[in-house]
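input
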Amino acid sequence: MTPPMLYYRPGGIAEKVLAHCTAIKQPFNPTVWAPNAHVQSAMGMLRGLSANGNYKRQLILTNDHGTLGLDWWGGADKPSYAAHDVPVVLFIHGINGGSHEGYVKWACVAAASRGWRAVVLNMRGCNGLPLTSARGYNAINTADVHIAVQSIHSRFPSAPLMAVGYSLGSVLLAKYLAEADNGLYTRMDQQQQQQQQAPDAAAEGLGAPAADSS
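output
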């Protein structure tokens, strides 16, 4: 087997990240008791049954009337869970997934074992969320990721925020990071603040949550 092919722009943060990710430069050798994709998929489904823990759902209504769900693992939404500056890990599921998936649950277990706060972003219409807007979620529009990041930061402003995306969620996360790195959401947040301060403002900036309740 040959190592996977990596596509990225050399230099900068990419080189620093890859220096610590030696496994992705090596050929993939499946474990002997899960030798193919069929067995691995079945075990992935069963894995969700073995992760013990509960979520507390925080609903967010976006300015276009969409509904998002932040599911906090094991009481991580409570200030008493840990120190105010303990890291928060945001997980973004794959297509048609959600916080109920086994791989997401075990990721939350791993984060919690380190004493971190774990939270999962459930996209519009996924995992029991009602589809309340004309627009669903896709791999291009990253505004909902920004809304989740804003909500988490407003709740725990002193905490470092990390994010992990799976499958479609990784596409969303990578695009969001690229856009944020180029200042897209900084400009939008500034426009939002100007609109909120202006007495004749008729609308909020793109991606701003209209309501945030738990």
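quick obs: The chain has a mean pLDDT of 84.
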